[in-house]
Amino acid sequence: MAVLGVQLIVTLLTISVMQKVTERFSFGKWLLCRTGLVYYLHPTDAELRKLAGLPQPKPKPKPKEGINKRGKNKKKLEEPVEDKTFNVPRNIDLQLQTTNILSRDIYQLKFFTEFVWLVDYSVFVMIVYLITEVYCGVVPKANQEVNLSMLWCLLLIGFALKSLCSVTGLYFRSTEAAAERSLVLVGGSFCFVLALGLLLIDESNFEIGLDAAYSAFNQSASVFLERQDLSSEGPASKLILKLCFAVWCAVTGALFIFPGLRVSRMHWDALRFCGDRSIRKFFIYINLVTPFLLSLLWVRPLARHYFAERIFGSMETPIMTDHMFDSMRLWLCIVFGLIRVVSAPCCFQAYLNLAGDRIEKMKKEAGRITNIDLQRKVAIIYYYLCVVGLQFFAPIILCLGFTLMNKTMGGYGWFGLHHYNPDECTTQQEPTATISNVLPSDDSSLNAAREQWLVAINSFRQIFSYEVYRGVFGFANWWMQFLSFASIGCGLAYQSYFEDV
After folding, report:
1. Domain count of the fold of the chain
2. Which of 178, 267, 276, 421 is most buried when burial is the number of CB atoms within 10 A of its CB?
């Protein structure tokens, strides 16, 4: 209980510090204002009139003063009738001006609050998780207590999903986004069918761990219900559970469609703007390849077989043990996720450069365009910068969140020393006491209530064991990596096709 008290103190201190620190230093604001991002300014009406050869509007005449019947001055305002909308040729010789993003310019951005909160909160979650992991490593008894950092990670996953739902909801609230809505629905339906097919693959080749998790949950839950004198044939069938996972995959797949397309476009444009900067190109290529490589780590013939089972040449043992391979997979998910965060400013600048590309593309077209539509073409790019930021960061945060929860809840270790070994675990680990045996009577003391609570917690742990968490969060972690790869891959195929056309 002392260990839990230390975690609670760390949590309360972090909550009290969050608001004070973010007022002076915010990582989300730093990404927008301190990384050298430059955006394009939309042209004013006076500039467009001058370039198009249109006469400038006449200045408003000064108000005339008159004398009313009572002898008091009376101002008569004569406002000229001015049409603020005018047409300019599309091939107008327009050169957009650029300026750095300042702190006073970012509050007007759409979803600015959501973006800054999600990025800043993810930083604090990583800090709390790091402190908790160090403390659990120093105090071995801490692994037997409730890990409060998992509550932070769970909230982080919830905030990321909520942000994706809000961004995706833009397409359903707009009356002009029928094509976007159709694409979201088609993507969700395709992911549902794909997930059903993937969940039927034999787990001897595809180690997501859902079958082992279902077997462990079914056995422990049945024993628990029997000890409570409740008749039960076990939890829901495996088919129903996998159907629920497929529905969850469909929902997340629908949310990942446009973030994947947007990220692929940003990477595509970033490669064009890099020039001879080899280091920046390296990070961009790493971002494109890492989701694909990470998704392959769960395919046993392509990953575990070569690293943890096959013996090469004159070696007497494999390259690493199974536990070391699990730790390596967790490390790669964390490291590659952080590398993708490092490349965020480059991708954001590639997105902001779309304003200049739109104007250059418009110059090759014939006809005329209104000044309002032309200004909107430029201004809307900067206005939706935080929306694009959410689409970039939310998938990465989901991958990191599920990786951290998979490590802790699944009993893994960072250096190959796991807290749970299924080979050494026996099935006779059910709690010997039942909840009914420790129900406090009318004259029971606080110790009886505490004993009842401990028995309930112990029963919960026996039902939701490490094996169950490994299956649930392992599959969620793999699905996030696979969705990132699939959505970005579809976006790259789309970009390459229309680039050739």
Report:
1. 1
2. 267
